[in-house]
Structures are given as C-alpha cells and as structure tokens.
Amino acid sequence: MRVSVLTYGCKLNQYESELMAEKLENEGYIVVNEEVESDVFVINSCVVTNEATRKIKQQIRRLKRKFPGAKVVVTGCYSQLGFEELEKEGVDLVLGNNEKKYIDRYLGESGIFVDKAYWNRNSLEDEFVFSSLAERTRAFIKVQDGCTNTCSYCAIRFARGNKIRSKPVDLVVSEVLRLVNKDYKEIVITGLNLGKFGKDIDSSLHELLRSLVKIKGDFRIRLSSINPEDLDEELISLIGAEEKICNHLHIPLQSGSTDVLKNMRRNYTQDDYLRVVDSIRKVDPNFSITTDIMVGFPGESEKDFEETLKVVREVLFSKVHAFRYSDRPNTLASKMPKKVPGNVKKERVEVLEKLSAAVAKDYRKRLVGRKAKVLIESYKNKIYSGYDEYYVLHETSHGEFGKIENVTIQAVTDEGVISKKYERKVSNR
C-alpha cells in the first residue's frame, strides 16, 4: 500500500513527517513525500495563518476529486484546533499532534482522534528518527516543543501546548551521531521555542551545542528560528567560535515598531532587537540574519510600518518572510479594535517584499570575492546548486552531490550568488 505524506508549515512538521514516514515504512507501507497516486494521503497541517488553513482545505478537495478512492488523513496543528472543520470537509481520519507519532496504530481507523491537552502527558523521548529522511543532504532534528510565551496573535501554543518539553541531550547526540554516520552534511536543530531548550531538564541550548560540536565528522550544524530575547552573549560567542555551527540565525522580528511589539506581547523592543543584531555582527560582520515580519497587525499605523522598513534597512536581512496578519481563533489580537483593511495590508506587504529583496541583494553583494562552503543539493542543466553556511543559494559549475565544496563567490543574482570552486594554488618553488 502506498502512502503519500504532504507537509505544510514549520521545520517541526518536517521532522514529524519523517517520523511518521519511518513508522509506516517499518510496517511495510511504501511512503512518498509528494502528490502522486496513492492509497492514503496524509496531510501534516499548519494553522499559523488563515492562508495556511485555506490551502489545506484546497488540498483536501483536490485530492478527493483527483483520487476519489483514496483515504485522506489530516494531522498536525490544524487537526489539533480545527478538527470539526476538517470533519465537515469529509476527511476520513483526523489525528492530533500526539496521535501522529503513532500513525501506524491509527491508519486503519476512521474518525477523530485528538488529545486536547496531550502536552501534560507528553515527552520527546520516543521521537527519534532512525533512517527515513526525505532529504539526503540535510536532516532536521526536533529537540524541543511547547511555548510559554503569550504572543497575542499566535494560536500555535494552543495546538502544541504551553509546557516546555526538551529532548534529553544524550538522545539528541545519539540522533545526530546516527545521521552523521549516514553521511548527512547538515543537521538543523529545531524547536517551537528553541531558545527555551533545557528549561525543563536542567540543561540549556548552550550545553546541547557544546555536546554536538564534539561529534567528529565533516558536517555542520544550523539552528532554526530563535527569539531575540534568548540570544545572550554566551550563546552568540559560542556560535561565532565554533566552526561547525553556521553563522546564520533566523530571528523573528514580527514588527519594527516598539508600540506594535508591545501589543503583540513580544518580549523585546526595537532597540533590544538591534542590540542583539549588533552583538552578532561583532562576531562576524557578514553574519546572516533571516526573519519573519507580519504586516497589518491591529492598530498598525503608517508610522509603525515605516519603523519596520527602517529596521529592515538597518539590519540588512539576508531574507525576509513577509506575511499579512490574520485573526486566529481565541487569540487576544482577534478581539482587538482598529483592524487594518485588507487592501492596506496587501499594499504594505508588497512594499516590504520589494524592499526586502533589494536589501537581501545588497547583503549578498558584500560577499562577492569571499570564500564559502556550499552543500551541493541539486544538479540541473549542468549547474550545481546548494546553500552555504550563511544560507545563501549558490550556483556553480563544479561539485559533487551531497558534498560540501569550497568555493569563491563571483557575482550576485536575484535569488543568490554565482561561485566557482576554490582551488588552492601550490607554489612551484
């Protein structure tokens, strides 16, 4: 029996999809991670915005039209919070975030299986991927789940819980070691609120990273999204000092306006964010910072939006994920007055995207002439491509799939850079 696993949303979902795939493969199912003719379709869902849930509903309807005899299963955050909506869409099986870990037990069932407060009984010790990874160059490892922040716009904590759960350090080390021995070259450490790793097990992200960099092998470590308030001088120094850790961080800004940040219930001001950036860039002036920015939060004025644009120019982000605010059920922000009209949000996101693209290109221009280490991940039309330690996309004429190549950056494109293989010159003397 063939099962197609389709993943929406964050890196946590990507990891959990791999966990499901491995469980199913161990039971003899043929698992693919694309939309092809299958007996069962598993949609690992996201609920972060209205747009995300709209796309999932479209996907469900398309699958039912295209493959009327197939079973449709939806799991993930949308299942956790919107299982009644999914039932109306005619989904055959709905599994919550805890139940997805045991999909092999539920696949023969029909109906709704959602533990509404699973985080009070849940740990990460049984979340361990042995071998079933879709990407053969980069692997995601989930080390933390749950969030104690109370951002006024976010529904994710309702889906994943407000209790911090961390995977034991020795288990993470074991998982990374297994992947490195399978010749994975990049390990992405991910969590819902990664900076809070270890708070529940008398550990810390610093301790975890110190353990991981001791693992021998030709590989690198990349951290996923981390909030600015969790980036202290000790962690920044550790990242800068360790060659195995990429000089790239995804640090959500959400807004450049301190007033809007206060209404969002974010735990920092504009000045706080810029101080963190300054500390990072002292470690490496070219340190790559990517971010998320929300436009049109309730009450966001034109002046507030200009503050966001100012920060984008000042930080010189290497990439910005810009998106429009949308009400999420049961959040504080959904009840706030002064909603920004849809046409204004659309205009602002277009302005932000245009500026962000220009700023990212300016960032890449600073890298021309510098050496970089590129993980070759694809080959098409005689061009090798992959990302370097700064998470900049390279195109190069030489390489080997799955290997890290030393290159020199030659020129900038709209999407990334062009580079050539760096050859060390040997003196004839």
Structural features, described:
With 429 residues, the protein is α/β, with parallel strands linked by helices. It has 4 domains: 1-115, Cobalamin-binding domain (Rossmann fold); 122-245, Transcription Regulator spoIIAA; 246-366, Transcription Regulator spoIIAA; 367-419, Nucleic acid-binding proteins (OB fold (Dihydrolipoamide Acetyltransferase, E2P)). The protein has 12 helices and 18 strands. It has helices at 11-26, 50-66, 77-88, 103-106, 156-160, 169-181, 205-212, 233-241, 258-264, 270-283, 302-315, 342-365, and strands at residues 2-7, 30-32, 40-45, 71-76, 93-95, 111-113, 138-145, 165-166, 186-191, 220-223, 248-250, 288-295, 319-324, 371-380, 383-387, 393-396, 404-412, 417-421. The strands form 4 sheets. The protein has a 6-stranded parallel β-sheet, sandwiched between helices. Strand 5, helix 4 and strand 6 form a beta-alpha-beta unit. Helix 6 packs parallel to helix 7 and helix 11 packs parallel to helix 12 (342-365). The longest helix has 24 residues, at 342-365. The protein starts with a strand and ends in an 8-residue tail after the last strand. The model has no long low-confidence stretch (mean pLDDT 94). Its cofactor is [4Fe-4S] cluster. Residues 1-112 form the MTTase N-terminal domain. GO terms for molecular function: 4 iron, 4 sulfur cluster binding; metal ion binding; tRNA (N(6)-L-threonylcarbamoyladenosine(37)-C(2))-methylthiotransferase activity.
